[in-house]
Design a protein that fits this description.
UDP-n-acetylglucosamine1-carboxyvinyl-transferase, Chain, 4-stranded mixed beta sheet, globular, binds uridine-diphosphate-2(N-acetylglucosaminyl) butyric acid, alpha/beta
């Protein structure tokens, strides 16, 4: 499926009152595709990625790699990468500003060039998001790290075996370290790693490239090699896109079947939905049916690292719980500022109060359409599904956030019966 990539100026008009019914095909995972695309740099051989969703973040990653001299051919969801020649070992300020995940280039660039220059990311709308753990790891691995004039200068001084423990669990930090160590011809250990399915998909790729990686709980034992090979890999389905449609189905009193899902990746989301009163059925190995017409039961949710409840589903569940029969509590433990959608939901009539990292949501009878602004990717999707059940019309602005991470979201919703219209700003 191809999508139209848009300018920042488009917006969506969502008319409330429709029920989501039918089948929806879930796209490949954004957060798995990004590190896998960047991992192609680890080898001089060609690689092919299948099922990569066509999104702004993927387009930006392709541009990041092309700026380094890598040749890329994309046809629909298939991306062929020829990283034989790297002419530039730098991720510019513009690359990093457009997409924070550009910091994932640090590890692979160090492997290919012995050095890397990567713009230091600033904070973003969901939190400060420091990368101290990435840098601490590189220092422990024999890399000189200097930050000046807004850039991180990294230079590899030695190739050594590493035994490193992350102070906190970080997804892209773990991915950077795994990519780097996969090219070190020695045995290394990483402790307190992230176990998100997207990290596991990257590990699958690194194994295909020739690295030997064992996982024991939150510990990774890596035996790398210098001559890593190219790979062909089909990325896992996007569990957050799936979760968003699952919430949409129950929220609207609908009945949808999701195709191309891995049920095991959705355990915490399924548990929360069932607790809220939804019916979730496994139709086949990779198909799930979600339906239910309420009443929506209140929940007590805390976001946690995988296999806990994902922070990337927090905003969507907040919409659901805004219409619950009682009071719910959501505690956000991953990002310190990921409640910006609360103000927008309040504009739609939700009754939510925030104290520190905890939101108290008192269920209301109905939401009403309003003009709302997307504050980040997941907030953007949450506002769209809120519009599906709100009385009247909801205008969701700044949907470039949505287009960073959801492939054809509005088209998929329309196919399920929603009234969603994309319009350019005047
Ligand atoms: N952190 C540090 N120091 C570090 C790294 C992280 O303090 O060096 C903190 C962060 O500030 C945050 C927590 O640790 O408070 C967890 O951050 P993590 O590094 O795990 O997040 P990330 O790798 O930057 C990825 C996803 C996010 C997702 C988080 C958490 C990608 C490209 N991004 O971010 O996805 O929310 O893990 O699961 O994989 C999204 O898709 O909308 C999105 C934001």
């Amino acid at each position: 499926m191809t999508s139209t990539l848009l300018s920042t100026s488009e917006y969506l008009i969502v008319r409330g009152g429709s029920t989501l019914t039918g089948e929806v095909e879930i796209s490949g995972s954004k957060n798995a595709s990004l590190p896998i695309l960047i991992a192609t740099l680890l080898s001089e051989e060609r690689s092919t990625i299948l099922d990569a969703p066509y999104l702004l973040d993927i387009k930006n990653t392709i541009e990041l790699l092309e700026n380094m001299g890598v040749e890329i051919k994309r046809e629909g969801n298939r991306i062929e990468v020829n990283p034989e020649r790297i002419t530039n070992c730098r991720a510019s300020d513009e690359n990093v500003r457009r997409m924070r995940a550009s910091v994932l280039a640090m590890g692979p660039l160090l492997v290919r060039c012995g050095e890397a220059i990567v713009a230091m990311p600033g904070g973003c709308s969901i939190g400060l998001r420091p990368i101290d753990q990435h840098l601490k790891f590189f220092q422990s691995a024999g890399v000189d790290v200097n930050v000046k004039h807004g850039y991180i200068y990294l230079e590899r001084k030695e190739k050594k075996s590493v035994n490193f423990t992350f102070d906190i669990i970080t997804v892209t930090g773990t991915e950077n370290a795994l990519m780097f160590l996969s090219s070190v011809n020695k045995e290394s250990v990483l402790n307190n790693i992230a176990l998100e399915p997207e990290v596991m998909d990257l590990i699958e790729v690194l194994r295909k490239m020739g690295a030997d990686i064992e996982i024991e709980g939150r510990k990774a034992i890596i035996r790398g090699r210098e001559d890593l090979s190219g790979f062909i890999h089909k990325v896992i389905p996007d569990r957050i896109e799936a979760g968003t449609f699952m919430v949409g189905a129950y929220l609207t009193g609908g009945d949808i079947t999701l195709k191309n899902v891995i049920k095991d990746h959705l355990t915490s989301i399924i548990e929360a939905l069932r607790e809220a009163g939804a019916v979730v059925e496994e139709k086949s190995v990779n198909e799930i049916r979600v339906y239910g017409s309420g009443p929506i039961k209140p929940l007590n949710i805390e976001t946690r690292e995988y296999p806990g409840f994902p922070t990337d589903m927090q905003a969507q569940f907040m919409v659901l719980l805004s219409l619950a029969d009682g009071v719910s509590v959501i505690k956000e433990n991953i990002f310190e500022n990921r409640f910006q959608h609360v103000m927008e939901l309040k504009r739609m009539g939700a009754d939510i109060s925030v104290k520190g990292n905890t939101a108290i949501i008192k269920g209301v009878r109905n939401l009403t359409g309003a003009e709302v602004f997307s504050t980040d990717l997941r907030a953007s999707a949450a506002l769209v599904i809120a519009g599906l059940v709100a009385e009247g019309e909801t205008t969701v602005r700044d949907i470039y956030h949505l287009d960073r991470g959801y492939e054809n979201f509005d088209k998929k919703l329309a196919k399920l019966g929603a009234s969603v219209q994309r319009l350019p700003s005047l």
